[in-house]
Amino acid sequence: MLGLRPGVALAIALALSACSPTQSPAPTSPDLTTPVPTVSSEAIEAARQFRESFGLRADTAWILAVAARPDVDRDTFGVPLTIEELGELNQRARNAEAIKEIVTDYGSAHAGDWAGVFIDHQQGGALVVQFARSLEAHRATLLTRIWPGAEIEFRLVRNSLTQLDAISAVIRLDDPWLATIPAVATGVGPNVPANRVELQVSSANPSADTLIWEHYGLGPDQLLIVSDGNGALLLALGQLRVVAVDASRAPVSDLGCAAYPDADGAYEPHPVPMPTTDDTGTCLLTLPATGYWVRLEDGDSSNIVAIGRAVVVADQISEVTVVVP
Q: How far apart are CA 157 and CA 133, in angstroms?
């Protein structure tokens, strides 16, 4: 995969998923009568996307019930998982990795036909092996090299990895023509499950897909275009001065300043290092021009201590005062 931005949802979509989401059987724990915890909408959505991508149960009631239990894993994948769910994902990986090296070495030796391999978590973690030609011959050979009963599926697809790499090489992320859409390209590379090249763009133009296909002389069967739909990366910049004060209007220092944009993807709310309020209770953020929910967070625990609302105007300094209880 070439030049793709990090991100859990996108990484999973490119590397691990291929079919319409299905749900695995619900684990036996936790009980849905468990007291519901306070979980942010962002955390619920992140858990939902992860679970759907891996074929795990993903309704809100279940997500909250799992999050409420003390005996769950919260660190391995960044979302709460029951011990049974974690064990299932780990077992899928072990089963697939055991034969993936054999399959990949064979595919690399037949590069003209080879179309890649991935773990299909929507089908219980089966290893999917793809060829663009001579599928039955390759299947017969590989089945003599792996043990009977291996969780493996063979698929005949249109494009080999060699073809996808060649298409990727044609597309320039810094192509000045993209500004005429307008759009900004942020990543390009083979999407193995989709058997297409994926181009990620930021653009509010609903015709961006068609314009890009015509520009590069490609079709949707070769090039998958994923747009944020809002052109968040094209927004002009402004500055936001966040002032934290207590009830007596005295400045509050050492609070993290997190800004959540109305335009998804315009700004990472928790950059590293996170800006913090200084001795005057102020932090100055350079942000794309859109609306924001501003959260002041305890630096040690990341707990939200106060929330404010602001709008950033291009080429101006806006200000919001947030009262800390």
A: 8
Q: Which of 39-53, 165-179, 219-233 has the lowest mean pLDDT?
A: 39-53
Burial class (CB in 10 A: 0-12, 13-18, 19+), 269: middle
Q: Are 325 and 305 in contact (CB under 8 A)?
A: yes
Helices 60-68 + 41-53 axis angle, to 10: 110
Q: How far is CA 49 from CA 18, 229, 242, 261, in A?
A: 14, 19, 32, 20
Backbone angles phi, psi at 18, to 5 degrees: -150, -25
Q: Which neighbouring-strand residues pair with 129?
A: 117, 154
Max Cα separation, the chain?
A: 78
24 — pLDDT class (breaks 50, 70, 90)? very low
Per-residue pLDDT averaged across 44-57, rounded? Answer: 86
pTM of the model: 0.67
Encode burial over 80-101: b for 16+ CB neighbours within 10 A, e otherwise: bbbeebeebbeebeebbeebbe
Nearest to 201 by CA among 172, 221, 222: 172
Q: For all residues of the chain together, what is the average pLDDT? A: 86
Instruction: Provide the residue type at 235 as one letter.
Output: L
Separation of alpha carbons 122 and 101, rounded Å: 21
CB atoms within 10 A of CB 42: 10
